[in-house]
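Fold sample X.
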Amino acid sequence: MNRIEAAALEIRRLEENDRVAWEDLWQENLDHFAAPDRARADMPVIWQRLMDQAAPLLGWLVLLQGRAAGLAHVVLRQHSFSTAQIAIPEDLWIAPFVRRHGLAERLVERLVQEGRAQGWRRIEWETGVENFVAQWLYDRIATLDPVKRYRIDLD
């Protein structure tokens, strides 16, 4: 399969009737990254947050010829240098059956569209230092920030 034809592709916000498709894709993601059991147990709560219009967690679904093919979860946050929000894609998952055909790039393009329409200040994200396939895409479409990320696990 070559690059995906635009007519076969739909990228839209998650809707209530997408739950089964979302669960399947999210489970694939959790399995791939060997997520802890807690992440699986939290799936119902995460879904409720994705459906809550007041929550700062947004979800997108990628459909290819009507079949669920990917997802994105984006956290919106305020920041101290501007009144505009920053969007942070925490998860960008393309199903293995359709990888390397441009869907991840199309999904990011859709997030950029949404950000411009909603007045976000920017989109920023991180990826694993050994995730070279994702880095190849991100290096082409975004600017690498010269920062390090630190964390303190609390649980």
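Fold sample Y, listed below.
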Amino acid sequence: MRRIVIAPDSFKGSIAAREAARAIADGWQRIRPDDALLLVPQADGGEGTLDAIAAARPDARWRTAEVAGPTGEPHTARWLLLPGGQAVVEVAESCGITLLPRDASGNPRLAALTASTRGLGETLVAALDAGAEGVTIALGSSASTDGGLGALAALGLQLRDAAGATLPDGGGALGALAAIDDTGLRAAPPRGVTLLTDTTARLTGLEGAAVVFGPQKGAGPADVALLDAGLARAATLAGGSEHVRPGAGAAGGTAWGFLRYWGASIRSGAETVAAITGLDQALEGADLVITGEGRFDATSLRGKVVGSAIERAGAAGVDVAIVAGQADPAAAAERRVITLTALAGSSEAAIADPTVWLRDAGAELARALEP
């Protein structure tokens, strides 16, 4: 009997990490039913972080908050409360791009200038009111570029224009920002705030939030310039040097807002989730770890789930297999990689029914294992 750890990331836009791990396990058990399988789904600190932690931590408790979605629509956001009072919230759950209203074709109506992080702040209010002693914020999949000021406004930060009026939500309004008053801002929880991200983007400039991430949120060239200028104005009024820190541009600059006003710290998302879910402990005595993601390429080895799993497995002396939707041939050349695209015959077929092909991938890996 072999001990197999199954620790994939989500296959973004296709299947969540928990379901991916279950499908791989089902396929493996078709071939090797007597092996011990340990499912430890992972995340890189973005979308899917809550689900990965909840799957590995039965002592976590789900909570909900009624919040404003990215463009103001009522939304029920989930968050987790861990023993000891640590709250875990996720940008994607409260103001993520997947929560935007859809058009007739089912595509999100991108709102680069008006989308806001207010819902994140309202989720944090709920966590503080519930007695959270510390907060972990998973950044990623955001719809907005407002520097996190929408979230902070929900927590009591006052944003005003030159006439003294409250500034509207959204990064597009930041160009009119004239004053920031933090006297009414709720204090950070006593055990502090941790931001999960693996981006090194700064708040502004060519490597900033608007330039790097704005286009995928629907921002055209003029919008990018407007958003970048607005973030720069906010940073000037706020003072401090947090805006130049690598990672400050995460989630449309949300990291900057919490670095500046709540004294947050930044940690690697993949490494933190691996620690919370006990991946190192799971690897002890394992014969193989199966990890994976939607696309495996050179970037997978830098701060992503697959790279983290490979490093941890190497330290534990455990072999690694990778299941990916697609793979760059150069990156896959010296590793054991199975792609769903190859199994299904096309990327379209793989995306259409990932569960089927993940099961097949698990079965193929099981067949390849020595008796």
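Sample Y note: Residues 49-269 form a domain with the Glycerate kinase, domain 2 fold (CATH 3.90.1510.10).
Also: The chain has 15 helices and 13 strands.
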